[in-house]
Amino acid sequence: MTHSPAAPRFGVNYTPSRGWFHHWLDFDLDPVRRDLDAIAALGLDHLRVFPLWPLFQPNRTLIRPRALEQLAALVDAAGERGLDVAVDGLQGHLSSFDFLPSWTTTWHRRNLFTDPDVVGAQAAYLEALAGALAERPNFLGLTVGNEVNQFSGDPHPDPDRITPAQAADWLTRLLAACERGAPGRLHLHASYDAAFYQDDHPFTPAHSARLGAVTAVHSWVFNGTAQRYGADSVAGAQHAAYLVELSKAWAGQPHRPVWLQEVGAPAPHVAADRAGEFTRRTVAAVLDCPDLWGVTWWCSHDVDRSLADFPELEYSLGLLTTEQRVKPAGRALAGALAAARDDWHPPRPRTTALVLDLPDAAPKRSTCGPGGAFFEAFMRLAADGARPTVLLAERVADHAGLSARGITEIVTVEDVS
Fold this sequence. Notes:
The chain contains 14 helices and 13 strands. It is an alpha/beta fold. Strand 4 (93-94) and strand 5 form a beta hairpin.
């Protein structure tokens, strides 16, 4: 895939203002249209949408036609407002809640990643989702699921344990199902940052950077970044950009696009009166990353306080209130995207590469996470204005690869310490 000088996409993860994702139970297009009007008014160009897997495929051999029709209606309503739509398949996990069909749990407990009946049903479901939307011009493509890697190991309370090879097989099969349903669309998968930071996690950085049409990263500073360094720190502002550049170390192509698919300003880790500034600094940092496909903020609307049992931070992540009022983060994102579109210049190559000495499977990744030696060396370089990227040690002698990425200086963690 070749490098594109086009300005990055700006979008939002759509959380319905009425009923949260439970709105699929009594789907009503009127409140959805109001939400979409408010999203379009911010100047955004796309949504990421989350069908709830148990509602769309309540039995292993039943994919509800009416649910597919409702999803298509939402996509059409978005298109009427100039919004493209990316759809996630296996939900899976959302905002601390797991949504798994009854045919995978308790009396029917089966491994989500290796049981042949379960994986076959997942493939059929993803192909049906993609097929239902394939003819719609504003359908971007499918993401296999939202952070489904969290089911594969600790700290999940009841994980479906697998090996990295099994994770790769699962991803390859399900991405192929997406492609069968809607050939040529932007089909990908998405892991939360355990894939990059957690030792021995079965979903690896190489999976993220090599499987699917683009690399997806999810940036959340409540992962220890804000607690250790502060949300206003260099590490807080640069965390999303760091994940974008870290993912490039494993990419098979020098200009593979990277999608910042989730990023938000979580309270209290980001103070409410600093949410706008945090948004502005985060977006400015990530726009300085070459090969950025786009930024999709989490999320469109706050969670209604009438809904119980969410972690406190989940209630206030919206760019908009449930009454459609624009919040400081929403104003900051709208301003950033307007400026980027009015005067877009692709960022210069990041010429300084920090060497990461991890094997391809990267079993010991904690050095890359908050508090790790590699993480801190990258942030010291960023604080000094070096605009670093990341290079695997095994690629230091790949002169063609270095040239393709524009790398002219190589430094080690020891050089920065």
